[in-house]
Amino acid sequence: MSEENIKEQEFPVEETVRVLPGVSARVKAAIFDNGVIIGMMILATMCLSAIDNPPDNLKMMVFIFIFFLYDPITTSFMGGTFGHRFAGIKVKRLSDESKNVILPLTLLRFVLKATLGVISLLIIPSNENRQAIHDTVVGSIVLFEDQ
Known about the structure:
By secondary structure, the protein is mainly alpha-helical. Helix content is 59%, strand content 7%. Strands 1-2 form a two-stranded antiparallel ribbon. The longest helix has 27 residues, at 23-49. The two termini are 40 Å apart. The mean pLDDT is 92.
């Protein structure tokens, strides 16, 4: 074979199989996040008890921040919660996996996840991108940290 013929030959390229996190990694992250939230609530209670007669509005704002905004804020700004990090996963935009999901969409994602609960996870095994319902609606994808 001449050098010219070798250059023209096409060699089959192996396709790489993409492995995406399943339900177990998400459950592991959720359990860890529940511990984080409980820890934050205990710490907030201790801090608030150090204040003589803290206003009810302050207590309510702290509770709302911890319980309702922990997931959306950490997911939007860090690409996932501390539980996601612990489980070795991250949440990114499906359209551009190098970017985090924007805050308004992470808020919607959290509301859907909290409302649907386990039902949202049931479609993960049958979905090509292993997305839960809340991921499909907002256009997010859960990846392993090293992807």
